[in-house]
Amino acid sequence: MSAVALPVLSILLLVLATAVPLGLPPDATFILPLVVVMMVFCWRTIPDAVLNPAVAMLLGLLTDVMSGGPLGFFGLLALIAAIVGEWARGLGEGRRMRALWLFWIVFVALLAGFGWLVASLFYMRWIDPRPIVFGAFASILLFPVVLRGVDWIRHGNRFRALIFRGRT
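Above: the chain sequence. Below: its structure as tokens.
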């Protein structure tokens, strides 16, 4: 699969998963959409991966539509994650997990605060920050899993060859 299609298709599958009714409590509604934003960030940190920021924003807009959120909210967050992921690309060159994870912790804390402020402005009242904080905390815990998943998707042929060695 091409270097352009792989990031888009992998994120698109996760965007479609945001529409699945999982029966999560109200405080957990931001988990999957923030994982989409995290996946955009992870793909942008990979030096040879191609994910255009405009495409990332469109995937964020699709996340808004699929999750029932305000149109443009996750589009804006995905665009910001794509731009910041490009800045963090130097950390992704050696795939230094701890450095990227620490960067993500600081970034998602700032992004959650910004998202809460934008959502409060959108609804013209102070909204409950718990869902955004819970989603940010969950994304911090899930970051190593998502980063390893992105690496696995990117190097899938090598891993498939190791798993199914001699069983073709």
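The chain is about 75% helix and 0% strand.
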